[in-house]
User: What shape does this take?
Amino acid sequence: MNVWMRRRAGWLLWWCAATVAGGWLLARLELAQLQSAFDTDARIVHRLLSQRMVQHDAVLETLALLQPAGGAGAAEQRLPSLYPQILSVQRRGPGEAWPDAGLAAAEAASRQQRRAALGPADLAQGRYWLVLAGEPASFALQLSLRDATPSAEWPATATAITMTLSHAGQRFALQPGGQAAGRWTFRAVKVLASDSQPLSLAASRTVAWTELPWWPMAAWGAAVAAVLAAARALLRQREQRRRAEELLRLGQVGRLNALGELAAGLAHELNQPLTAVLASTQAAGRLLAEDPPELETARTAMTQAAQQARRAAEVVGRLRRAVERPDTSRREPISLEARAREALHLLEPELRRRAIEAQVQPGAAPVTVLAEPVALEQIVHNLLMNALHALEQVPQGQRHLVLATGVEGGRGTLSVTDTGPGIAPQALDRLFEPFFSTREGGLGLGLSLCETLAGELGGALTAANHPPRGARFVLSLPLAHAGAAAEPAMAATP
Ligand code: ADP
Assistant: This one.
């Protein structure tokens, strides 16, 4: 996986993490809201049902108190038409017997507890008897749970709740609710607030996957993607600007150094003849002084010539001073690996554009050399640019570049190896000569400058072919003293 893909995977990972975290939070909020709605609905249902139960007690108590006249068509027989949940009404007058022993037992219990008592029940069918002992007659109501259910008064959201009423091992399915397949289930169990009919109300609600807030979750994911894309673009822009500035600076330093190299050549070429002119004019002046018809004129001319020659030498000297190279005497400990990574990082767009596969191979141990940072940067940059030019001459897919660090002969080494066409044998001896170039538009000053800088740093630069194909340049530099700290490696690793 190359650097570019690794970075992409990193951004994708961030997106996934943020989307999952946000989605989880939104789902939790929605579930909390659903739970609270469920609790409220269950409370309302419990209260309404409890009220119904109390109503049954009230009907019975009214009957027992008023004791309507008995016989067929008695007033109590009209109750079912008034209350749909009352299926039938039974009365036991003095000396009469209940048709069912269960009713008799319930009456006894009612008499003892002084309130209505539950009689025989068939909860599966939603039916049960409620008996109240009275004088002279006792009354029993057969009640239908289905009709006692005030579902019309329930909140609309309560229809999703599964509800059952149970008592003494019998169950009545009050409402099937939504039969959703889901992961979250809310439950509530509460006995109805009625002493005579203590039915237990169990409510449960399963939240379906489809009820999760998918749209807000998707919107959150999209928002995260947009923010990350913007951040990525911003970072890229900043990185590009930084790279461009760095390349510009290197270019400027390179041009200045090339000028310095030029000035050094000029000075060398001009100083010799100028010194000779100076020497000969001074000699001529002396000779003329021995035999003088026009002594003064000749002396003046000679003096002026000497002055001109000195001025020319001064001009050359000034030019040289003006374009001085980096002060290679200011050395500091530098990690070769970090410098190599930094140089590759700087040229990453160039490498990608040319489809060059580049890598840094660190040695067994970190190598820290003593060098002037700008000079070292300049050498590595020049070597890399040369390798880039060489690799352009071979087909894509065969373009490899390796920067390896190590220690050889008590010196730190950085080798730059490419799989380009290599160096022609006749060119090998002349590579470091100023103005030697086989490249169209090449100045031929790069390697000569690199060699000069390496020498000034107390190191050396060598070149060789690297079988089966390609060139290898090895820069060796003095190691930093043991214990000297290396500069930290760059965060971005190409
Ligand atoms: P320029 O790059 O301007 O030609 P240099 O001094 O940097 O000047 O390089 C001199 C010459 O050395 C190049 O023209 C080229 O022939 C040869 N050269 C440098 N680097 C390589 C390389 N990696 N592979 C093959 N030849 C190289």
